[in-house]
Amino acid sequence: MDPLSLKSLLLLLPLLGCCVGQGILPAGPVSALVGGNVTLKPLISYPPSVITWAFNGPNGVATFVGGTVTVEDAYTGRASLNSTDGSLTLSALTPGDSGDYSVNVITTRARFGETKLLVVEPVSNVDIKSNVPDAIEYNSTVILTCSAIGSSLSFKWINGSAPIVVDGTRITEIKTNSSSVLTIKNVLRTDLVGPIYCTASNSLTMKSTTTPFNLTVYYGPDDVTLTPANPPKFIQAGSTFNLTCSASSLPPASFTWYYNGMKIETSSSVLTLDMIKGYTEAANYTCRAENPKSKRSVPSPAVSFTIMEGISSVEIIGPTGVLIASNSTANLSCQATGGTVGKVDWLKDGKPLGPSSPRVVFAADESSVLISPLQKDDNGRFTCRVSNAVSSKEAHYNMQVVYGPEQPTITARKAVEVNQQVELTCSAASVPPASYTWKLNGTATTTTAAVFIIASAAYKDAGTYTCEAHNIITSKTTSTSHNLSVQGEGTLDGLSDGAIAGIVIAVIIAVALVVVGVWCYCRQKVPTSSPY
User: Domain named Ig-like: which ranges (predicted)?
Assistant: First the structure.
C-alpha cells in the first residue's frame, strides 16, 4: 500500500471506529521495562479483515490490509502484527516508545481502541548520603538524600523495621523523580537508631540500599545520679563504702567530683573513701558529668555524710589483788583506743549496770565505775561497751569477791532404822568454796567431804552431827548441827516399800480367790435339762 493510501486509511478508520465501537484495548497505562518486550492485544471475537496500529496520533506502526501485514520502517525488526487476533508486539523497548497507542479493527464491524504504554527503566544504584558525619542531639539538622537510577521513581525511608514518619514540621521530605531528601531538625537519638534503609521503586521494580546506613547521634549526659542516693549519715573510715556516679551519655561522660563545692582531684566514676580520707567533717558530695561531643555538663543531686573513725579496741583495767567482801573496793576503768567515743555502757552478767545503791558510783563520762565496799553479789562478769555512730567494741572483766563461809545447812533425815544407809549433806555459801569437817557428839570424825555417808546405820551412829565450813582466805569457820536418831527395824511410822508391796500382792490374791469361789457356786445352782 502506498504511503498516501495508508495515511488516508489511518485518518478514516478512527472516525469510522469512533462511530461504531470503542474500548477494545485496556485503559492502561501498560508498563514495560527498557530493553524488554510488550504485546498490546485488542479484545475482538472475530478474525479481522483490516488492522491499523498508530502511535501518538497518525504515526503508523503496522497495518493488515488485503491479507498483507505491513510494518513501518521505524519499527522494522522491533514490531510484529498478529493478523489473527490483531495484537501488536514491540521488542527492544526504549523510553521513546512510551506514549499513546491506538488500533482500528474491522471484523464484522469497525472497532477502535486506545491505551498508554509506559516504558520504565529498572531501579538501580540506590544510595544514601548525609550532610554530616555525625550529629548532636537537639542541636544538629540532619539531611539524608536517597538517590537512584530509574524512571518514575518513588521512595520510602525505614528506621530499623519501622517506617520513618514525616510530620511536615520537624521531619520533612522533598521528592523528585530521581531522589528523596529527608530533613530532620533538632535530631533526637531515637530518630536514627538505625540501621536506616531507603527503598526506591517504580511500577515494575523495587530496590533498597544494599548497605544499611548508620549515623551516630551523640547525646547526654542525662539522668546523672549518685549511688547510693541516700547514704548513712555517718560512714566508718576505712570501710568499703563508695559513691558511684552514672549518666546516660554517648560518648561516655567524664566525671568530676566536688566536696562542699570544692573540686576533688579524681576523674573516676567511683569515689572511694581513700580519695577523701582527709575529709572528716559533714559535707555535701556532688558529681558533674560532661559529654566531650555535646559539651553539655550536668550535675548530680548532692548527698551528705560524715566520715568517722571507728573504735579500735576497748580494755577494762580493774583490781588484780584479792578482793574481800565488806573490806575491799573495786575501781573499773574502761579505756578505748581509736575513734571518737560516743557512748559508754556498763553491764553485769549481760544486764545493764546502774547506780542501784550508794556503793556504785559512775564517773561523769561513765568511763569508770567505783564499787565500795564490795559485797558478795558483786561477783560476776562486768562488760564495758564503747560505741559511736559507726562502731561498737566490748571488753570484759571477771570480778571475784571473797566471802564466807556463811551459816551452813545440813540436809538429812532426823530418824532412821538400823541397817539403813544414811547421807548427811552440808552446804555453805563461800568464795572460794569452803572445806568441810564433821563431828559426832563433839568428837572429830575422819570425814572431810560435804557429804557424810553411813553405809548401814547402827544404834551407835545416833547422836549430834556437827558440820564445820572453813574459808581458807577469810580464815572464817562456821558450823551447824543435826540430830540423828537410830531405831529398831519397823518401829518408824509408815510402811516400808517392801511392806506396801506385800500388802498389795495379798489383796490381789484374796480378790482372785473370791472371784473363783463365786463362779463355782453359781455353776452348781444351774439345773440340768432332761433328755426326755
Answer: 122-216, 221-304, 312-400, 408-485
Q: Residue 451 forms beta bridges with which residues?
A: 425
Q: Are 295 and 365 in contact (CB under 8 A)?
A: no
The maximal CA–CA distance of the chain, rounded, in angstroms, is: 178
The pLDDT tens digits for 18-41 are 433 458 998 889 999 999 999 999
Residues 311-328 pLDDT 10s: 999 999 999 999 999 999
Instruction: Report d(CA 518, CA 362) in Å as an integer.
Output: 88
C-alpha cell at 49: 479483515
Do residues 235 and 216 make contact, with C-beta atoms less than 8 angstroms apart? no
CATH level 3 topology of 313-399: Immunoglobulin-like (2.60.40)
d(CA 25, CA 101): 9
Cα–Cα distance, 120 to 211 (Å, whole number): 25
CATH of domain 124-214: 2.60.40.10
Does domain 29-120 bear CATH number 2.60.40.10? Answer: yes
CA 25 to chain centre: 71
Residue 482 in grid coordinates: 543435826
Helix (H, G, I), strand (E, B) or coil at 4: helix
pLDDT score at 326 = 94
Distance CA 391, CA 236 (A): 8
Residues 6+ apart with CB under 8 A from 298: 221, 222, 224, 247, 288, 289, 290
Please give the Cα distance from 450 to 483 (Å, whole number).
17
For the chain, which residues score pLDDT lower than 50?
A: 1-21, 495, 499, 525-532
Rounded Cα distance between 449 and 127, Å, is 112
- Count, in order, helices (H) and strands (E) of the chain: 2, 45
CB–CB of 215/198 below 8 Å? no
Q: Where are the domains of the chain?
A: 29-120, 124-214, 222-308, 313-399, 403-487
Q: Which CATH superfamily is domain 403-487 in?
A: Immunoglobulins (2.60.40.10)
pLDDT for the residue numbered 248: 97
Query: Residue 26 corresponds to which amino acid?
Result: P
Q: Into which CATH architecture does domain 222-308 fall?
A: Sandwich (2.60)
| Residue with cell string 544514601 | 128
